Amino acid sequence: MLRKYGVLIGLVLLLALAVYVNVRINKAAAEKPTPTMKVSVANENESIAAGNVDSYFETFRTDRTNHREQEIMYIETIIQHNEVDAETLADAQERKLAIVENMEKEFTIENLLRAKGFEDAAVIFHPGSVNVIIKAETLTPQQVAQVLDIVCRETTEEAQNIKVSTALK
pLDDT tens digit string along 128-147? Predict the structure, then answer.
């Protein structure tokens, strides 16, 4: 029982470390002066820091990959720990599988959107929430419906849980 609490405390410390590192990286990235780019978000205009749209999509994918690799590394540490109880091991394996499934869904949706004629897309999937950023100045209602159809079909999420945005060219 004491080991279980020790492992749990270790996991909490690893999670806190991951959050701390993520905040530091994001703070350092935010301090770099870069030109801004307009992004249209479902009838709203926001700006994101990026040199241009192409570098936004490249940076997004790189950051997403790095973040996922870090998450998987933490989970692997738990899985490989010799004194982990069966419940913690099962939870870690389940979390790792969920990350891999999310990665597969994002990859599939991005490729299906490109196959349907969209120049590029970035997808962030979490159960209950999907964000899709399309490389375009605007989207027609038919294009939004096409995006929603693909995302709903691949994730089984309802349309109200999906947010479609555009990154201006």
Answer: 999 999 999 899 999 999 99
DSSP string, 1-14: -HHHHHHHHHHHHH
Question: What are the tens digits of pLDDT across the range 78-131?
Answer: 888 888 888 998 999 999 999 999 999 999 999 999 999 999 999 999 889 999
Helix/strand/coil for 150: helix
Query: What tokens appear for 126 in the block?
Result: 């979490």
d(CA 68, CA 76): 12
**Fold classified for 2-167:** Helix Hairpins (1.10.287)
Crossing angle between the packed helical segments 53-80 and 86-115, to the nearest 10 degrees: 160
If you write DSSP's letter for every residue of 128-148 in order, what string do you get?
Answer: TEEEEEEESS---HHHHHHHH
